[in-house]
Amino acid sequence: MTIAASTELICFALLGSVVIFGSLGVVLLSNIVYSAFLLGGVFMAVAGLYLLLNASFVAAAQVLVYVGAVNVLILFAIMLVNKKEDLIPIKGLRIRKLLSGGICAGLLALLIRVDITTPWSLPGPVPIGEEATVRIGEHLFTDYLLPFELASILLLMAMIGAIVLARRDVLGADIGTGDPVDQGLIEKTNTPLLIDKSST
Length: 200
Fold this sequence. Notes:
Layout: H1 3-28, H2 32-52, H3 56-81, H4 93-117, H5 131-140, H6 145-166
Helix pairs in contact: 1-2, 2-3, 3-6
């Protein structure tokens, strides 16, 4: 094995470990802010895997779209709606965890079976070099234009929803339930910065 191949294998192992353990941290951590930051790290590791596959454009798009837009939007929404309130205990939480864990384990087993039984053609197709970016641009604005625009509308709706959830305390009553809102969450006593001592 050459030095280049061994280096590529080590980088793949490191990036794959970051993706696996970061994804577990996103799911298992109770602090949602830490989960969001770990999600950004997972996105960066996936971009590194794309670089190992010589897909530089996809790696750049991964960083710009997922890390620079989606993850920042998630953090923005968390900062807006994080009220530090006690969560209501969920009934049957252990059963739900077991069911979701079983479903995830089944999906993992299915993916492993597909990976093992599929006759992968190696080596892959011949890379087209600099024309890859041109081809991606053509497909993005012709064949996949509608999903691209729908994704942008979905992100806009998510931001509007986060702002609406954060602005509930400004109203006198909750829009959904009609219960009075605690205005103390947003109203603070304004202490003057400069005190006129001559009047005292």
